[in-house]
Design goal:
Structural class: mainly alpha
Number of strands: 0
Number of domains: 1
Low-confidence stretches: none
Mean pLDDT: 91
Length: 83
């Protein structure tokens, strides 16, 4: 895993925790900065990055991207796009 992929995974893990906290947190966590960080990291991915990761990030499929980075791709369900 590259450094930028690790940064993305860390941000995705933080997002996962933030989403889980939405049910009970008062005040609700502000997730906008996380989405901005993810977009910034995604724009830094080198051209040789696996197309599936790029696809997931470009389409906001953050849970799929997280599972892919964890090596758990078989757990991903096919989306409407066929991936």
């Amino acid at each position: 895993m590259t450094d930028i992929e690790q940064d993305i995974l860390d941000a995705l893990t933080e997002l996962d925790r933030g989403v889980a906290a939405m049910k009970t947190a008062v005040p609700k966590p502000d997730l906008v900065p996380l989405f901005q960080r993810l977009q910034a990291f995604a724009s830094q991915l080198p051209s040789e990055t696996h197309g599936r990761l790029i696809h997931y990030l470009a389409n906001g499929s953050y849970e799929k991207a997280r599972l892919w980075l964890l090596g758990r791709e078989p757990e991903n369900r096919r989306g409407l796009c066929g991936r």
